[in-house]
Amino acid sequence: MAGPTSGRSAENGGHKKRQGPGAFATAYLVIYNVIMTAGWLVIAVGLVRTYLAKGSYHNLYYSIERPLKFFQTGALLEIVHCAVGIVPSSVVLTAFQVMSRVFLTWAVTHSVREVQDEDSVLLFVVAWTITEIIRYSFYTFSLLNHLPYIIKWARYTLFIVLYPMGVAGELLTIYAALPYVKQTGLYSISLPNSYNFSFDYYTFLILVMVSYIPLFPQLYFHMLHQRRKVLYADRKKTE
Questions:
Q1: Which of 83, 115, 144, 204 has the greatest CB tally within 10 Å of its CB?
Q2: CB 46 within 8 A of CB 63
Q3: Which residues lie within the region annotated Disordered (predicted)?
Q4: Is there a catalytic annotation at residue 163?
Q5: CB of 98 within 8 A of CB of 76?
Q6: Vertex 33: Cα angle to 78 and 167 (nearest 5)
């Protein structure tokens, strides 16, 4: 899911400082976040350029398919960052959020090519792109101890629209994939087999959709709480 789409939700905001990473780790994280910011900017430019050339928002996915797969998969390194301790965020939460997007990128959109024409794909791609440009910029400037307020404000405000937009796109895309998954038996394993194990990918996708029901409001309201906490603290400082 895009709490999942909100981008490593607010509790991970800006690689929170405890003691902070060492100089080498900080330099590495700055480089990583700059590269990821640039990558998502490439995706944004690709979307705009193709839209202007075609004069239509339909089927823009194909213009950014490769960089989207590359940079979204590159987010797997964030799990490693947490696991080795250079970023003090929850490994489990980060893994859940990263893997949910990687899953949607590869196991749904890539694997079920028929859904790539759906407008819902553009919905979550646009939400992800804006979110990630802001998020990685936020991390970069935070690590450099020079965070512009506009980026902090965007980080803790635009999710109000982008999170529901991304979740809607993700759910509609999974829903659109269901008939093709059922028809082809994609990734399903039937009995009998030597492992005495069965797996129905169609049912699994339905369960994934159902999981959004408890998770979306929980993450969304948590992020609203974080927004009040962070931005209210800034207002208090200026009073």
A1: 115
A2: yes
A3: 1-20
A4: yes
A5: yes
A6: 60
Q: Tell me the C-alpha distance between 118 and 46, whole Å.
A: 18
Cis before residue 214, ω within 30 degrees of 0? no
Which of the four pLDDT bands, split at 50, 70 and 90, describes residue 211?
Answer: very high
Q: Of 92, 69, 81, whose CA–CA distance to 9 is shortest?
A: 92
Element spanning 127, H or E: helix 119-143
- Give the N- to C-terminal CA distance of the chain in Å, as an integer: 38
Pick the closest to residue 62 from 7, 99, 110, 24 (CA basis): 110
User: Which tokens is 150 given?
Assistant: 């506009």
Could you read off the pLDDT of 117-140 as tens digits, one per residue? 999 999 999 999 999 999 999 999
Rounded CA separation 140/134 (Å): 10
Q: Quick check: is 170 catalytic?
A: yes
Angle at alpha carbon of residue 213, lines to 184 and 125, rounded to 5°: 65
Q: How confident is the model at residue 236 (pLDDT cuts 50, 70, 90)?
A: low
Of 124, 205, 130, the closest CA to residue 167 belongs to 124
Cis preceding-peptide flag for 67 (omega within 30 of 0): no
Find residue 5's DSSP bridge partners: 2
Sign of CA dihedral 152, 147, 78, 131: positive
User: 165 and 214 in contact (C-beta within 8 Å)?
Assistant: no
Cβ atoms of residues 174 and 166 within 8 Å: no
pLDDT per residue over 158-190, tens digit each?
A: 999 999 999 999 999 999 999 999 999 999 999
Indicate which residue of 163, 201, 202, 220 is catalytic. 163
pTM of the model: 0.91
